[in-house]
Amino acid sequence: MADVEDGHEDEVEVVVAHNERATLRVGDVFLKVDADQRRTDVEVEAMAVAPVPTPRVLWRKPPVLALAALPGTALARLGEPSTASPAAWAAAGAAVRRLHDAPLPPWPGRSVDELASALDAECAWLVANDVLPTDLVTRNRRIAEAALRPWTPVFTHGDLQCAHVFVAGDEVTGVIDWSEAGRGDALFDLAILTLGHEEHLDDVVAGYGSDVDLDLDVIRAWWSLRSLLAVRWLAEHGFDPSSPGCEVDVLRSRM
């Protein structure tokens, strides 16, 4: 969801588009088009119960979901330096904590076994197709194993990229893109929020709360796991995971 701007009410902006879904902006309205209505069902239900600010649903007419724009700007974007203050990152951590303390949603998330199977498949594909060096994949695969352990499920956003958290000053004004929400590992959300912005991990943890046992090695393991799982999807959908500061650089930083 792009930043709020004045005017341009008659212009149509393609925010993101690939063969699974598309998001368009017309003035201060975002139109999300998704052929998989299960994802939209999850998004609408998650936004209705999440204890953090979310976009207002204007209307829904499958396959289109219309959402009101949020005030503020994205906390950061992968591959770009963050201009948000440490206090804004801490506020994002506090918002994530409120979500994780909320009652569990009724639908499940991905299991450890599902993630392990997906990781095996993606690593094999990356090596077999010479997409990434074998030693890079092997090293990150070994690091990622630390994330594949039992966890106490919480209400997770499931795709909490820094670009999905909007802030104004030092306050969170909303969180977007809830289609992957479900029961999951709290450290996964914290890892995705700080992916590519490791320098703000301490700020996020400070906002999240020191009374929680946060295993930073597991967060780092999720960085490797998420990046390994994302490379093929991104490449096949028109994105470049090798752009500076993005997934491939995250994997290289683990070396």
Automatic annotation (TrEMBL):
<dbReference type="InterPro" id="IPR011009">
    <property type="entry name" value="Kinase-like_dom_sf"/>
</dbReference>
<protein>
    <submittedName>
        <fullName>Aminoglycoside phosphotransferase family protein</fullName>
    </submittedName>
</protein>
<dbReference type="InterPro" id="IPR051678">
    <property type="entry name" value="AGP_Transferase"/>
</dbReference>
<feature type="domain" description="Aminoglycoside phosphotransferase">
    <location>
        <begin position="46"/>
        <end position="211"/>
    </location>
</feature>
<dbReference type="InterPro" id="IPR002575">
    <property type="entry name" value="Aminoglycoside_PTrfase"/>
</dbReference>
<dbReference type="Pfam" id="PF01636">
    <property type="entry name" value="APH"/>
</dbReference>
